[in-house]
Amino acid sequence: MPRTDASHLFGQEHAHSYRQTGGEVGHDWKGTSTLLLTTTGRRSGTPRTTPLIYGRDADAYVVVASKGGADEPPVVLERA
Prior knowledge:
- By secondary structure, this protein is of the alpha+beta class.
- The chain has a single domain (7-75), classed as Pnp Oxidase, Chain A.
- 18% of the residues lie in helices and 34% in strands.
- The protein has helices spanning 12-20, 75-79; strands spanning 28-29, 32-40, 47-57, 60-64.
- A hairpin with a 2-residue loop joins strand 3 (47-57) and strand 4 (60-64).
- The model is unreliable at 1-6 (pLDDT under 50).
């Protein structure tokens, strides 16, 4: 079944490269900025790290967690 979202564009490889290089690889991605958000699993208590797109709106940060336009929300929103 083909993917209907962009979740394959980010993932553990992205997070690993980002961490290993202090953001030199992974922060700037396809013309946008990304960050690593670590949350705690609501049932497991296990820390989970997810790369997310972010931007600025005046003096505020805007973080995007959309699962690339998929019909269902990304899991990271359930842990936030």
